[in-house]
Design a protein that fits this description.
Layout lengths: L2 E5 L3 H13 L3 E5 L2 H10 L4 E5 L7 H9 L7 E5 L4 H10 L3 E4 L4 H20 L1 E4 L2 E4 L4 E4 L2 E4 L2 H12 L5 E2 H9 L8 H13 L6 E6 L3 E6 L3
Length: about 220
């Protein structure tokens, strides 16, 4: 069971979040400020933090900065009444992973929590499981029911990126920057070519497909069943 810590000085908000997350099957620990939250993290494993910014003793920014100096990986979802773009930017600069503005839509909060936990699991395991398919980041292999293929590096990274965020559309430019690097002399047709190779390679695999979004880029669609 995932352990989620809610760091929030408003008791009724904290209890409401606790109720929602407990209903979704998470274990929830409450902390009233950043100092208390750091003490809790010394004593027990926390898988994700939902964090208010405006708190006594140690605010959300300071807490995030302190935590990131020793722990790069625990996902943080900042929840705040601050709506200005510069507040959001400051949140990301100190190391938050996601950001929501109050009043919180709790259904959306749960979806964001699930997405952050999934990403963090992928990052820790360095493996991605989709039905019978497993992608192993360290060996660049894609395997399914005993059949295994080792992919060229860029091809593998492209597939891994798209399958890590099913349904999310990535522009060709985003994929170029991330996989080939901002200074690459390759053109965005390079992405098209690699997608074509991947489609050919995995043509008979029913678990996923790589879909073109006309004029924009690509997304991965996962088929359950």
């Amino acid at each position: 069971m995932f352990q989620i810590m809610v760091v929030e000085d408003d008791k009724s908000t904290a209890r409401l979040m606790q109720t929602v997350l407990t209903y979704e099957g998470y274990a929830v620990i409450l902390a009233g400020n950043g100092e208390e939250a750091l003490e809790i993290m010394d004593r027990q494993q926390i898988d994700l933090i939902i964090l208010d910014i405006m708190m006594p003793k140690m605010d959300g920014y300071e807490f995030t900065e302190t935590l990131r100096s020793v722990d790069e990986h625990t996902p943080i979802l900042m929840v705040t009444a601050k709506q200005l773009p510069e507040d959001k930017c400051k949140g990301f600069l100190v190391g938050t992973d996601d950001y929501m503005v109050k009043p919180v839509n709790y259904k959306e909060m749960v979806l964001r929590v699930k997405a952050l936990l999934r990403r963090s699991q992928i990052a820790n395991e360095r493996k991605l499981h989709i039905g019978k398919v497993t992608l192993d980041y360290d060996s660049l292999t894609v395997s399914r029911e005993g059949e295994s293929q080792t992919l060229p590096q860029k091809e593998f990274y492209l597939l891994y990126k798209l399958l890590s965020y099913p349904g999310q559309i990535f522009t060709r430019l985003q994929l170029m920057d991330e996989i080939w690097g901002k200074d690459s002399t390759s053109t965005d047709t390079t992405v098209n070519v690699h997608i074509a190779w991947l489609r050919k390679r995995f043509a008979g695999w029913p678990e996923f497909e790589l879909v073109s979004i006309r004029g924009i880029g690509y997304k991965a669609v996962i088929h359950h069943g």
